[in-house]
Write a structure and sequence with these properties.
Blueprint lengths: L33 H9 L4 E4 L7 E5 L5 E2 L2 H12 L11 E10 L4 E10 L2 E13 L7 E9 L15 H9 L9 E2 L3 E7 L4 E11 L8 E7 L5 E6 L1 E3 L31 E5 L4 E3 L16 E10 L2 E5 L7 E6 L15 H23 L10 E7 L5 E4 L4 E5 L11 H15 L5 H16 L3 E2 L11 E2 H4 L9 H23 L1 H18 L11 H11 L12 H9 L11 E4 L7 E2 L5 E9 L10 E6 L2 E7 L1 E4 L2 E6 L7 E9 L5 E4 L8 E5 L2 E7 L9 E2 L11 E4 L20 E4 L17 E5 L10 E15 L7 E6 L7 E6 L7 E10 L8 E7 L5 E16 L19 H10 L18 H9 L7
Parallel strand pairs: 17-19, 19-21, 25-33
Antiparallel strand pairs: 1-2, 2-7, 3-7, 4-5, 5-6, 6-7, 8-10, 9-10, 10-11, 11-12, 13-20, 14-15, 14-16, 16-18, 20-21, 22-23, 24-26, 26-30, 27-28, 27-31, 29-30, 31-32, 31-33, 34-44, 35-38, 36-37, 37-44, 38-43, 39-42, 39-44, 40-41, 40-43
Helix pairs in contact: 4-5, 5-6, 6-8, 8-9, 8-11, 9-10, 10-11, 12-13
């Protein structure tokens, strides 16, 4: 889908190999599975996103079409069979059990949802989604997106199962802290991820709950099936947190039941109406019903709130459920008014029933094939507690408290929609936590078109929370209700963007459909983040209409600003690309222009022929922009003018795409440029740290770290430290901050307590025209109790360490602070005989896991000594053609292989070579 270019204010193009470090790599820094790279090779343009939190096993493939099939199901099946291994790190096709297929986007796409199994056992929150675009005139049924959170199969299989089902139940019932749970379900053998590394562990899952509806509680306990150890607990009650100051909604409208908002007649959707002794029917969204009836005589029509199509009202106050009846002479109308004399407890029943139906219909109207929510949900009101509400996943119920404690009755509008949102998360098979809170807020935001949860929740008129006022940012490590507001705020800002462009009503309906479509493919949150980079990819994928994210989506310019307001960036667009058949020069000819072949190619858009330009600058002046010479449409030669030897030249290339945007290479130009040195020759010294530690030393004045000191080793990998060095096999060694034990904990030997410094040996760069240093580095500070709190500093000295200049500071946040090897290259400003480089990793913040690594360090120097002159016939290299050269040629005369006297380069020494020599005989070389 071509972007509305009037709305696009910037265009970026990914490029590699520049001299600067100012542009971001992929949003994720985790290694890409080898099988995912195979998918990229099979379908050029496919992008890969991996998890950014700890060792989270998240993989998403997106951006271009992949497998096809004669039906959408066949396309999805083909993807799982051919490329399912790309969704995890075990190297084989995962065991995925399809749980549903849901039409979205006006039945133009189908989402196939799967749950993971390992050895036939269900994996807790092991989910996968595959999105298929239906066949049309432009192509076949095709997979356009696949994502998963799958646990890796344990190497060597699971440990033996020793604990029995009966043992697990006894262990659960005997746990201190859970003895108030008096109803226990049968234990279920499952697989769950344990610890920072999400290690797949076979466990017994035992669910316990209380039978007292006024004091509800429920937990799932997970016991290691080998040791019986309690390895995980999960509360199954999800509450509305009232610690904030957010306004709320009720009845009628969005406000609760209180003196300022007295009850008024409201339509009651999805309620069963019965003819005594006859048929029944459910009311429609407007509260209307039609019951088939065979006679004309008077009948009794009745209804009850415990007969809802999607809800079953239970009044925990002990009072009767609201009912109503009347005599009707067919065809009526038989207009029933139930709860004719309102009271708090009866009005709570009406509110809970009505709003449960509304939020169910919100999802079902936009995803008709999402049948997982089509069940009668236990809806409990007037529970003898105050100031809260919850969803109980153990018995699938939503629960609302009576007025008191400074709060109003919690059965009303946004509170009901929020708790139902938790139910939807449960039916999608996703984890709750911050994502559950954010998703539930979004449910209320979209249905009721408000950023405010629980308006007038308290008697003093305060609300629960307002996502617009909170303006919560990614990344987030606060409480789950706080971090949920990143997701809620993003969707509310999307609603604003859509409304501003399409008009309020039309924009609201479009963003509602987009939200439900997204709900069908999302694989949930990431750690404590309800919204994260993969969330942005999910939303763009369901908005896309041509299986190509490189050219944006129909609403890219509305979606991306909304996420950006909360610290989340959209993937870069790639409208046109630049190819360099002979590479990008790092050295320029001081005497003649350096020619660089450049091809401009289509990606998401098409380049405009004849628009290619070169922009260059040196200390002599600039920037200067000149046209490139076009030899064929969009095939150019750029001529970088000669400058005095020893000068640096920065440059970039540009061309226009068909929508009018000017695209640069590198993508960050003009702020980021390529760089080359004018010189006659260059030399490189490369240190891979394989043969030795390179003569580098550890320690500097002021170092005070207590652990994680730099060490030269073959690293033991963790979620924060690399498992492999950067040098290609058989390379294994590099410098890392501390070496933990094999399979050890995430923070076993990370940097703690201060700073640790790694210093290069002294490099003699005197007498050179210019020099560059480059290296591959790894840095991770995004895990632990206080992620993204510290920085990694690289400095250079030209006076043997007496003073230092900073080359770069990595962090405290950004795409290069989550691990992964990144290449960096810098000019040495004033080369001397005493150049050193040092790398400082520090833990000066509170509680972050800090790991760093360095490998493949290189120094490249440039010379202004011109090469000796050469001339045809100077066979002995003494810069003239004389009798010595003639004797060499005559001795070699008649040679037909590896001939010294082959002046014309035709493979032999013959009379042609002799004639060439005689034509310049006696002349010096010039």
């Amino acid at each position: 889908m071509q972007l509305r270019m009037a709305m696009l204010t910037w265009v970026m193009l990914g490029a590699a190999g520049t001299c600067a470090s100012a542009w971001a790599a992929d949003l994720s820094a985790r290694p890409v599975p080898a099988q995912a790279k195979d998918v990229q090779a099979a379908y050029p343009g496919v992008r890969v996103h991996t998890g950014v939190v700890s060792a989270e096993p998240l993989v998403a493939l997106y951006g271009r079409g992949m497998t096809t099939g004669v039906t959408p199901q066949a396309a999805a099946d083909n993807f799982v069979a051919l490329h399912g291994a790309a969704l995890w790190n075990s190297g084989t096709v995962p065991e995925l059990q399809q749980v549903r297929a849901t039409f979205i986007k006006g039945n133009t796409h189908t989402v196939f949802a799967y749950k993971q199994m390992i050895d036939g056992l269900p994996v807790e929150y092991g989910v996968a989604r595959v999105l298929v675009r239906h066949a049309d005139a432009t192509g076949d049924n095709q997979v356009v997106y696949a994502a998963a959170k799958l646990l890796d199969r344990p190497l060597g299989g699971f440990t033996p199962q020793i604990v029995t089902s009966d043992d697990a139940l006894m262990l659960a019932q005997g746990q201190l802290g859970f003895r108030h749970l008096d109803v226990w379900g049968a234990p279920e053998l499952v697989v769950i991820g344990v610890g920072e590394l999400h290690l797949a562990t076979r466990a017994w899952k035992v669910v316990g709950m209380t039978s007292d509806v006024h004091n509800q509680d429920a937990y799932s306990l997970f016991f290691d099936a080998t040791t019986g150890e309690l390895i995980h607990t999960r509360r199954e009650i999800y509450h509305v947190d009232v610690s904030g100051t957010v306004q709320g909604n009720g009845s009628p409208g969005l406000l609760p039941d209180y003196a300022g908002n007295p009850p008024a007649p409201l339509t009651m959707p999805n309620l069963r109406v019965d003819i005594s002794g006859g048929n029944s029917a459910f009311t429609d969204p407007d509260g209307d019903y039609t019951i088939a009836n065979g006679g004309a005589g008077t009948v009794t029509v009745s209804t009850s709130l415990d007969n809802g199509q999607w809800f079953n009202i239970n009044d925990s106050s002990g009072g009767a459920v609201v009912t109503g009846s009347l005599l009707v002479t067919p065809p009526g109308p038989g207009n029933l008014l139930i709860n004719p004399i309102p009271s708090e407890f009866l009005t709570a029943q009406i509110n809970a029933a009505r709003h449960t139906a509304l939020i169910h219909n919100y999802y079902k109207d936009r995803a008709p094939s999402f049948t997982d929510i089509d069940l009668v949900l236990s809806t409990n009101v007037n529970i003898n507690q105050t100031c809260n509400a919850n969803f109980n996943s153990a018995n699938l119920s939503i629960n609302f408290f009576r007025a008191g404690g400074g709060c109003r009755n919690t059965a009303y509008s946004t509170v009901v929609a929020h708790e139902y949102g938790h139910f939807v998360v449960n039916r999608l098979g996703l984890a709750q936590g911050a994502f559950g809170e954010g998703f539930s807020d979004v449910s209320a935001i979209m249905l009721h078109d408000t950023p405010t949860m629980g308006e007038q929740f308290r008697d003093n008129g305060t609300y629960v929370r307002d996502v617009e006022i909170a303006n919560q940012q990614y990344p987030c490590s606060d409480a789950i209700h706080t971090c949920g507001q990143v997701l809620g705020g993003s969707w509310w800002d999307m609603r604003q963007e859509f409304g501003g462009f399409y008009g309020s009503a039309a924009g609201l309906e479009l963003v509602r459909q987009l939200q439900v479509d997204w709900a069908m493919i999302t694989i949930g949150g990431s750690g404590s983040n309800a919204a994260h980079p993969a969330t942005v990819i999910e939303v763009l994928t369901v908005d896309d209409n041509d299986s190509n994210l490189d050219n944006g989506t129909p609403n890219y310019a509305l979606i991306c600003p909304a996420f950006a307001k909360h610290g989340l960036a959209c993937p870069e667009l790639q409208l046109i690309g630049f190819e360099f058949p002979e590479g990008i020069p790092s050295m320029l000819d001081p005497d003649d222009a350096t020619e660089v072949p450049v091809n401009v190619v289509s990606i998401g858009s098409s380049p405009v022929p004849g628009t290619g330009t070169l922009t260059y600058q040196s200390s002599l002046g600039g920037p200067f922009t000149i046209p490139m010479t076009q030899n064929a449409p969009n095939q150019y030669v750029a001529a970088i003018p000669a400058v005095a030897c020893g000068l640096d030249v920065s440059f970039y290339f540009s061309a226009q795409e068909s929508g009018g945007a000017i695209v640069h290479s590198p993508s960050g130009a003009p702020a980021v440029r390529y760089s080359a040195v004018s010189a006659y020759s260059s030399e490189s010294e490369d240190e891979t740290f394989e043969a030795s530690n390179g003569g580098w030393t550890v320690g500097a004045p002021g170092d005070n770290a207590t652990t994680g000191i730099w060490v030269h080793v073959n690293p033991n990998g963790t979620a924060a430290q690399p498992e492999d060095d950067h040098t290609p096999d058989p390379g294994a060694l590099c410098w890392v901050t501390g070496q933990g034990s094999l399979g050890g904990a995430l923070g076993e030997n990370d940097v703690d307590g201060g700073t640790t410094t790694l210093v290069s040996d002294t490099m003699d760069l005197s007498g050179v025209a210019g020099a560059k240093v480059s290296y591959w580095r790894w840095y991770s500070n995004n895990t632990g109790a206080a992620p993204n709190s510290d920085v990694f500093t690289v400095q250079i000295s030209n006076n043997d360490g007496f003073s230092w200049t900073t080359l770069e500071t990595v962090g405290p946040s950004g795409p290069e602070t989550a691990g992964g090897w990144f290449f960096k290259e810098f000019n040495v400003a004033s080369p001397t005989s005493q150049v050193k480089v040092r790398f400082q990793a520090s833990d000066l913040g509170s509680g972050s896991i800090v790991e760093a690594a360095i490998d493949d360090f290189s120094v490249k120097t440039f010379s202004c000594v011109p090469p000796p002159p050469t001339c045809d016939g100077d066979l002995d290299g003494d810069n003239d053609v004389d009798s010595t050269d003639l004797n060499i040629l005559l001795t070699d005369f008649g040679c037909t292989s590896s001939c010294i006297g082959d002046i014309d380069g035709d493979g032999d020494t013959d009379s042609t070579d002799l004639n060439i020599m005689l034509s310049v005989f006696g002349e010096p070389c010039v």
